[in-house]
Each structure stands twice: as structure tokens, then as C-alpha cells.
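Input chain follows. Return C-alpha cells only.
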Amino acid sequence: MNQHLFCCGFLLTLLAFIPEVRADLVQLKSGGELHGQASHTTQKDGGYVIRSLSGATVELNLNEVAFVTARPGLIDEYERKARLAPMTIEDQWALAEWCRQSDLKLERQTHLKSILDIDPEHEKANYALGRTKRNGLWGTRDEHMSALGMVKYRGRYVTPEELELLEKSSEDREVEKQYYAKARMWHGWLVNGGVAKQKAMDELKQLKDPLALKGLSKYFQYDNNREFRKLAVELFANIDHTGAVARLVEMTVTDSDGHIRQTALEAIKMTRKVDQAIPYLIHALSSSANLVVRRAGTALGELGAEKAVPHLIAALVTVHQYQKEEAVPTYGVGIGAGGNVGFGANAVLPPEIEAMMRTGQLPYGVQVYSNRKPITHMVNVSMAQENMEVLDALVSITGQNFGYNERTWQLWWKSQHP
């Protein structure tokens, strides 16, 4: 008995020192993939020899290979299972459970989300993703609070107004109010013209205080007059504060005027605030508005923001909701010769015509043409959109082009940043 226990213990100890099986993924320029152990050949072009897990070998020239990345063998096993798993709730749940037991957390989330694509009300998948149901809607706590307009501050949720008050002293709030009034006054002077206009310009161009940002946004950034919005770009560029950078980014991705958007981006470059601007632009990639996502992609491409590459990859294809007008079907009754009754869309007879037919005054039937407009209502539709500007940014930053294939992009990025 003791000898048996000793043997088992020795075997477990020996297994603990066996290295994890690893396999290389070889991405071909043609778009295909090979899995196995890759090693350089002795050829002059420095090609590869790939030995598959089954023992077969393949030789490739260097110009056939896009990149090579090493991965745990467990990932290969997962990908085989994922390729074979049918898109059903039962099979996706079984694969998610296998991922949980294999400690593949991100992969597990992928299959839990696939279940919700099939059945958004699936309780186990929702709970596994940390989602709960409130007011009839599933979501995380952050999503529920965000829907209520709340933001997190030091571990608790507050309104944006409360957050602003918490982050500013009473003295700062008083100064901000004074700037708010001044911004309204400067705006009025510029509108009215005359001597006061030049005075307003002189005072505005000397402005450096970040506490003036709120007033400047209200009276210049959001004005319908493009000249005032152009002035806002100049004023924000003069203020050395992250709040000013945030407003320049906002104008870069939301302003309706292309020239102003470009001017705001150039102001970010000119003030050397690119590092401060990139997080705001990355956040814009998750916007519910597709136009904002695309503009953020363009800006990140121009800034050469390499740290944004993983976020750009995730934004290659985004899903957005749109409202669509849809006709509401209406049904009526038509009466033909002999009293035959027929049902059809938009075939409602006027009461006086129907009465005449029922009393035999129209023995040959009747055709009624209506000029009524069809009844319509608005419905929400979801649409996946390929974002060309995001792809252009990735190509510009990385020098690679894998199209809209998010998986290949992720594999390549991982190979460059192991």
C-alpha cells in the first residue's frame, strides 16, 4: 500500500515538471493557417519547416509567411472544439463550461455571448456574465447605472452634476460661474460688433484658466455659427488642461463641419497633446453613432496611435441601431356581386357604398380607390457595419492589411507583442 502511494506521488511530481505542450500558429499571406512546431530551414531565403502534431512536415518559403506566433496547445484544442461546435444553446453552453474548467476566461465569455445572441433571456448565460435583470432588462450593474445617467466616483455612483461638485472646491465653482457670465458677455459683444467686438477678442485670446472651459463650450463650441466654433478651437488650444483636450477631441469627431473637425485635430497636434487625446478617441470608437466611430478611426490614423491598435481591431465591424419606417398592415372587407365577401389589405369600403351593395343597388359589385396614406410606425433595427476609416487607420499605423478579419488582426498583433 505504501509502495503504491509512493509510486502515485512520484508520478504526480514527475507530471508537474512536464512542460506545457506548445504549438506555433503560422499565418500564410494567402489567408490560410498551419498549426505545429515551426523552425527555420537552412535555405538561403530563411524559410520555415512546420511539423504538425500528427508528425507531417511542410516546408514554406519566407515570402509565403505573414507571421508566426507561439501558443499553448490548449488554444489549438479550443479552436478545434469551437470550429466543430454547432451554434445551438446546448452546444455553446457545453463549450463555455469546458472553457471554464480549462481556465479560458475570455473564450468562455465569447460562447456565453453567443448564447445570448440566440436567446437574450437565457438566465444561466446572463448570470455567468455578471448580468442581472432590472426593470425587465438584463445588464451589468455598471450598465444599469449608466442607463440611469449615473457615473462611478470613488466606488459609488453619483449623478454627473454631483461628480462635478465633488471634484471642485467652492472657490473653483464660484470662479467658474463668473467665467460663465463672462462667456455670455463676450459672445454678445462679438454678435453686436463695434468697439466691444475687439475688446472681446483681446480678452478671449488671453484666457488660460481651465475654469473658463464650461462657459466657452456653452457659448462658442455649440453655437450654430461656424465662426464661433472655429474660435472655440483656438480658445481650447490656448488652455493647457486635459479638459480642453477632451473638448478638442469632441469637436474632432462630432462637429458637422469637416474643416472645423480637421482644425481641432491639428490643434491637438500643434499643442503636443496627442497622448492626452488618444484615450478620448479610443472611447469614441465605442460610440453608438457609427459616424463618430469612423471619424475617431480617421483621427487615430492621422495621429499614428499605435497604442490604439487593439481598440481599432475591435472596432473594424460595429453594430448600431437605426430607426426604420414600417407600414402597419390594415385589413378590410369588400363585397362583390352576389354578396360574396372578400378580405384584403387596405380594402375598407365606405359605409354608404357598403349599404348600397347590401340593398342590391350595385348588382355588379364595386371598386373603391382610396387616397389615404398607409399607416406607418418606427421600428428599431440593428445593423453591423464595416468601418473603412478604421481599417485605413490600422493599415496606416501597422503597415499590414488583413481586411475586416478581426481574428487574423488579433493573432498578428499578439505575434508582435507576445
